[in-house]
Specification:
Strand content of chain B: under 5%
Number of strands of chain B: 2
Number of strands of chain A: 7
Helix content of chain A: 25-40%
Oligomer: heterodimer
Number of helices of chain A: 5
Radius of gyration of chain A: 24 Å
Distance between the termini of chain B: 143 Å
Order of helices and strands of chain B: HHHHEHEHH
Strand content of chain A: 25-35%
Shape of chain A: globular
Order of helices and strands of chain A: HEHHEHEEEEHE
Structural class of chain B: mainly alpha
Radius of gyration of chain B: 42 Å
Strand order of the largest sheet of chain A: 3-4-5-6-2-1-7
Largest sheet of chain A: 7 strands, antiparallel
Shape of chain B: rod-shaped
Largest sheet of chain B: 2 strands, antiparallel
Distance between the termini of chain A: 112 Å
Number of helices of chain B: 7
Chain lengths: ~210, ~180
């Protein structure tokens, strides 16, 4: 029994250390994650809300279907997906301009000031809105990418976790196209659209005839 | 008193046992039944240092095999056809179908859907056609591993939106850099 006690006393700290390492690894990967839960209230006023969550499991499942020998494009897509750990998209479309407050966009933009993020592009246009593109990297390894597009009638947040080659992504631009199935038919993709009220077309008022 | 002392001395005098004494004692011991081994003593014996090593190795190996089997089953699910039979798997080159799986009683299958549909830059158009299907899958075709196909569609959509946003940002930057007239 003494040997069992001794073994337990030695094994427990080792198990705790292993547990700490395994939980710390995914915790580090989450640093590139942008929190967008504070934008959920916009779904109530948005004309259309699109929420796409692609985690590591879905990426691996998708890669199992792709065959690099079938076409060069699939090989490129597999190459892109191999470094990804997650892609999170949230987009709100509004009927009118100014439907959302700038504080909503700022609540996301302020996260770009966190340590590790490097702003690689920021442009503000009256016509097209503002775009912020930030990158998180450790040395030469990209850990994450985030894009905030605050357009007049839409607010989009794209968060890519993992290493992504933007050049390869652009190389197969146009090859994605429209998905085979409708957006609503894709499991895990939430598309909510407000039913539009039926209104009679208002005819322009005729000037009173004398 | 001296007589008592003498008697005590004689009584406690050291005497050598007979030569058969040792054999008689051993025979008596052999006749005794073996002590019962408690079950917890048997279990505790497994945790003795020499055996514990093999127990740990066996447990780790079993755990790794279980995890590997679970992962394999998750990545390679068994496809059940409409007839309730398990679809036969063939190399993708031989089958010519999208998922590389050929059903036992399959009719001539439709060509694999192309991965190069018409490019669409405008994400708004993407949203408006969400209710229409542009796939090459016909009602009679068998969809192989729909979960993986749906995952692929989801990933492609996410990459499409990412690419579109980056392109829009680049275009906005280009427009901003243009000298205003």
């Amino acid at each position: 029994m003494k040997s069992v006690n001794t073994l337990l006393m030695r094994a427990v700290p080792l198990c705790l250390l292993l547990l700490l390492l395994f939980t710390a690894a995914p915790a580090r990967a989450q640093d590139a994650r942008i929190v967008t839960t504070n934008l959920d209230h916009l779904a109530d006023i948005a004309d259309k809300t699109i929420d796409v969550t692609v985690d590591e499991g879905i990426i691996k499942l998708a890669m199992s279907v792709l065959n690099p020998k079938r076409s060069p494009d699939e090989a490129k897509i597999i190459d892109i997906l191999s470094g990804l750990k997650g892609v999170y998209v949230k987009r709100f479309e509004f009927e009118k301009e100014g439907a959302y407050a700038m504080s909503d966009a700022d609540s996301v933009r302020i996260q770009f000031n966190a340590p590790g993020w490097q702003r690689i592009a920021k442009v503000t246009s009256k016509r097209e809105g503002s775009y912020d593109v930030v990158l998180m990297s450790e040395g030469s390894v990209i850990r994450g990418l985030a894009v905030l597009a605050a357009e007049p009638k839409a607010l989009t947040v794209v968060n890519v976790i993992g290493s992504i080659d933007l050049a390869k992504l652009r190389d197969i631009e146009g090859k994605f196209g429209i998905p085979k199935f409708g957006l609503e038919q894709i499991p895990g993709v939430t598309v909510t659209e407000k039913p539009k009220d039926k209104k009679e077309d208002k005819q322009p008022e005729k000037p009173p005839t004398e | 008193m001296s007589r008592l002392d003498d008697e005590l001395r004689i009584a406690f005098r050291r005497e050598q046992p007979s030569t058969e004494f040792t054999d008689r004692v051993l025979k008596q011991i052999a006749r005794q039944p073996a002590p019962r081994v408690r079950w917890w003593r048997t279990l505790a014996a497994l945790f003795q240092p020499p055996k514990l090593r093999w127990v740990a190795i066996g447990a780790t190996a079993a755990l790794l095999v279980a995890i590997g089997a679970a992962q394999y089953a998750r990545l390679h699910p068994t496809v059940i056809t409409d007839n309730g039979k398990v679809a036969e798997t063939q190399p993708p080159e031989a089958s010519g179908t999208a998922g590389g799986v050929k059903t036992p009683d399959s009719a001539p299958e439709a060509p694999a859907p192309k991965l190069e549909p018409k490019p669409h830059r405008n994400i708004h158009r993407l949203m408006t056609v969400s209710n229409r299907t542009r796939n090459n899958v016909r009602p009679g075709d068998r969809v192989v591993n729909p979960e993986a196909e749906a995952a692929k569609e989801k990933v492609m959509l996410a990459l499409y939106i990412t690419n579109t946003m980056l392109s829009d940002a680049q275009r906005a930057i280009s427009d901003a850099d243009k000298p205003q007239r």
